[in-house]
């Protein structure tokens, strides 16, 4: 049974892991706290970037640098220590060699190439216990766990709207519906994501930049996400702001699109699918799961879907939204585009219900975070 000291150490390890959100893909975020034999904190660490030290090794090194003896101590870690050699060695073996007597972890490793660390530790005589604060640790590692279990990135749909659900006025103007505090928070979301995705409609209407500005989380280095433009017919122009060198950009086009006007631009051609919802016009757009598969193949484990209504509707219709974050301004427009387009819902019986997990005040605005009560789906395969 885990002790109160170990529970406190796990909360700290979860906080340490969160410092690397957006920086470790395709690896998980992991935090570790090492306690000495009498339960005092000897070292802390986290996995900062793919290819660099894992959290356990980072914490053991910090303890050694501080002159602390960890023999007979406890390692508290958010994910079961890995059991394989990749760009770094197995953490299970590193813990054994350091003389750690007990390992407490939150989430079992579902990755078949890395799992088995707990068994290796137990075989070496190390006491192990799993499941401590598992839900909290899994929530912090949702992107990586989704990629392993569903074979696609974790998708967060973010939108900003008035209380009556409008994202712009009737004449198309939209700057600024929400407050400076809300806009700063969006930059935090971008910094924590591997990719930011918009559609061609948003590109034409707003010419967004999509890069992270400033340092949205003090003390955390900024890693720019991949900017992804879904542009079936390659209507983007070479002068679009998203094509500057502030961050990498990928333009996703249809199989027949003419891209000769985009020399040097990173593009990928994907198959289309027709909108078949109750208000769909039957026009082909990029197949959502093909898009997510292509991003997953590039190491993307988390996606921030920023716009607009048509693309959001397509993702929801495909069952590919894992979290919704809405920024609601205390304002009314009465007319203008809505936050969500056709999502394949024809009747109230098909309504997509959400479970609200957080409500926060940002300046004058409300930020509402929710998850679909029906889990999002994995990509379709021939077997299912």
TrEMBL record:
InterPro entries, per database record: APOBEC/CMP_deaminase_Zn-bd (IPR016192), CMP_dCMP_dom (IPR002125), Cytidine_deaminase-like (IPR016193), DHFR-like_dom_sf (IPR024072), Eubact_RibD (IPR004794), RibD_C (IPR011549), RibDG_C (IPR002734), Riboflavin_Biosynth_HTPR (IPR050765)
Residues that coordinate or bind substrate: 174, 190, 206, 210, 213, 306
Family (UniProt): In the N-terminal section; belongs to the cytidine and deoxycytidylate deaminase family. In the C-terminal section; belongs to the HTP reductase family.
Cofactor: Zn(2+)
PANTHER family in UniProt: 2,5-DIAMINO-6-RIBOSYLAMINO-4(3H)-PYRIMIDINONE 5'-PHOSPHATE REDUCTASE, DIHYDROFOLATE REDUCTASE FAMILY PROTEIN (AFU_ORTHOLOGUE AFUA_8G06820)
Pathway recorded for this protein: Cofactor biosynthesis; riboflavin biosynthesis; 5-amino-6-(D-ribitylamino)uracil from GTP: step 3/4; Cofactor biosynthesis; riboflavin biosynthesis; 5-amino-6-(D-ribitylamino)uracil from GTP: step 2/4
Cofactor notes: Binds 1 zinc ion.
MF term (GO), any: NADP binding
Signal peptide: none
SUPFAM superfamilies per record: Cytidine deaminase-like, Dihydrofolate reductase-like
GO biological process: riboflavin biosynthetic process
Function text: Converts 2,5-diamino-6-(ribosylamino)-4(3h)-pyrimidinone 5'-phosphate into 5-amino-6-(ribosylamino)-2,4(1h,3h)-pyrimidinedione 5'-phosphate.
Domain CMP/dCMP-type deaminase: 4-129
Catalysed transformations (reactions): 2,5-diamino-6-hydroxy-4-(5-phosphoribosylamino)-pyrimidine + H2O + H(+) = 5-amino-6-(5-phospho-D-ribosylamino)uracil + NH4(+); 5-amino-6-(5-phospho-D-ribitylamino)uracil + NADP(+) = 5-amino-6-(5-phospho-D-ribosylamino)uracil + NADPH + H(+)
Sequence positions that bind NADP(+): 160, 176, 202, 232, 308-314
Keyword field: Hydrolase, Metal-binding, Multifunctional enzyme, NADP, Oxidoreductase, Riboflavin biosynthesis, Zinc
EC number annotated for this UniProt entry: 3.5.4.26, 1.1.1.193
Designated name of the protein: Riboflavin biosynthesis protein RibD
């Amino acid at each position: 049974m885990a002790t109160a000291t170990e529970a406190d150490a796990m909360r700290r390890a979860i906080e340490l892991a969160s410092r690397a959100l957006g920086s470790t893909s395709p690896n998980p975020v992991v935090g570790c706290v090492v306690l000495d034999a009498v339960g005092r904190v000897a070292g802390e660490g986290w996995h900062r970037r793919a290819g660099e030290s894992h959290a356990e090794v980072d914490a053991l090194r910090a303890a050694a640098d501080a002159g602390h003896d960890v023999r007979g101590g406890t390692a508290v870690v958010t994910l079961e220590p890995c059991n394989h050699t990749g760009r770094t060695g197995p953490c299970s073996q590193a813990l054994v060699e350091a003389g750690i007597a007990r390992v407490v972890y939150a989430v079992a490793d579902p990755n078949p190439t890395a799992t088995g660390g707990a068994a290796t530790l137990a075989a070496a005589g190390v006491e192990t216990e799993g499941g401590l604060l598992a839900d909290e640790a899994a929530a912090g590692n949702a992107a990586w766990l989704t990629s392993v279990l569903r074979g696609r990135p974790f998708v967060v749909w973010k939108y900003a709207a008035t209380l009556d659900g409008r994202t712009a006025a009737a004449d198309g103007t939209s700057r600024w519906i929400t407050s400076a505090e809300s806009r700063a928070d969006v930059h935090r979301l971008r910094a924590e994501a591997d990719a930011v995705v918009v559609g061609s409609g948003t590109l034409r209407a707003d010419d967004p930049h999509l890069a992270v500005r400033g340092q949205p989380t003090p003390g955390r280095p900024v890693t720019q996400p991949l900017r992804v433009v879904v542009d079936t017919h390659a209507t983007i122009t070479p002068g679009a702001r998203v094509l500057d060198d502030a961050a990498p950009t990928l333009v996703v086009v249809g199989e027949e699109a003419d891209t000769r006007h985009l020399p040097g631009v990173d593009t990928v051609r994907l198959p289309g699918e027709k909108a078949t919802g109750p208000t769909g016009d039957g026009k082909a757009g990029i197949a959502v799961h093909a898009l997510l598969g292509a991003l997953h193949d590039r190491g993307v484990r988390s996606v921030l879907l920023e716009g607009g209504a048509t693309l959001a509707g397509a993702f929801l219709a495909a069952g590919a939204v894992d979290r919704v974050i809405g920024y609601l301004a205390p304002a009314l427009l009465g007319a203008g585009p809505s936050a969500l387009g056709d999502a394949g819902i024809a009747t109230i019986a098909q309504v997509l219900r959400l479970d609200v997990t957080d409500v926060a005040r940002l300046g004058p605005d409300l930020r509402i975070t929710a998850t679909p009560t029906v889990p999002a789906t994995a990509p379709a395969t021939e077997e299912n």
